[in-house]
Records
---
Amino acid sequence: MTFVEPMLVKPVSRLPEGSNWQYEIKWDGYRALAIRAGDKVALVSRRNNSFVNRFPPIAADLRTLENGSILDGEIVAFDAQGAPSFSLLQQRTENARALVYLVFDVLAFRGRDVRQLALVDRRGLLDEVLASDQNSVRRAPIVDAAPKDLIRAVKAQGLEGIVAKRLDSRYASGSRSGAWVKFRVNKGRALVIGGYRIGNGTFDNLAVGYYDDRDRFMFVARIQGGFAPDVKHQIFARLRRLEIESCPFVNLPQPKAVRWGEALTQRRCGTIDG
């Protein structure tokens, strides 16, 4: 009943088809593992950083789970129209009612490791762990539709993409085996803040990057404008508490534009996953 590395999703250029695949929406949120052991509850990121103090309503609702459970899912915030909003997720305290932990897998059931079971069997156990969707902890929906229809619907709704999983797949911790794949419908990339430059009592610009298929943190650009003054000071206060001595990027930031295969535009810099 301790942290295990989550299974990773492999990007693909074509959505797989067939009766041995199930489809889920790719949400714009934080991947998180939930551990319910004895009188303790843990809610952690995929790198084992605690989310308990960041999302206390979800942590509180996890206490209603059956003891001996480890769940895998994503923390998502929904706006008034029911669409996932990363902006609301960043304002978690003010929008606590919009927060939901969407669970899509179970790694431990009643204290037993079940990662070697097929996905379809683990999903059955998840239905027992979450017998009813209530409060902020809910089952992630499985979408029953033909891939072409699903792609059309996801694109129309402006959602990021689709995740396909083989029904017979085992849970391979830390692996990107190809049994789970993600197909991006609406192009874009969530960027992660890796550093900043100080200026005028706050930051002058942010150094941002992304994790590639080998989980390497790659620098792509610096972002300077587009921040309201109060938001800028809030971000700066959070960044100062997260400082480390070494550069997190595997490729040192370059003075000129860096590409990942597609040109970096202002629109693609609009979403920052801090």
---
Amino acid sequence: MARQPEQRAIGRRDVRAYLEAQTADILVDLLLDAAERDARTWDRLALAAASEGSRAQRLATLRLSVDRAVATLDDVRWDEMWDYTTGIEEAVDGIERVLRDGHAADAVDASEHALAAVEEAMQHVDDSGGQMGAVLERLQGIHLLVLW
């Protein structure tokens, strides 16, 4: 019996080499296509772009990102909390980015919105691991940092 050639799946290096060989336009299209299929990827890109937009765009994007991250159809069990809070942390990363980019007033507004949203969401989650408490502390820290 003839031996089958060893098959190897495409790995990270192969994909990286492919991407490095592409033009910027192709890479932008690939990323936008992926983002349109994945809400978290879209939110990360929108938050990064928001810092360069108008104040109204920045605030709307920050609020929408927070609202989408905390929204849940059902109560969140303890074993779902890591994934759930990761989405919220990414929204908080966006608030911190806006602050670093010199938009302190927007960071205050967004952190206040996020604090209210997270406090409301805490009624529907099992925070026995303290993840939501840590998110609240982080948001309070941002808010205090700006106001101080």
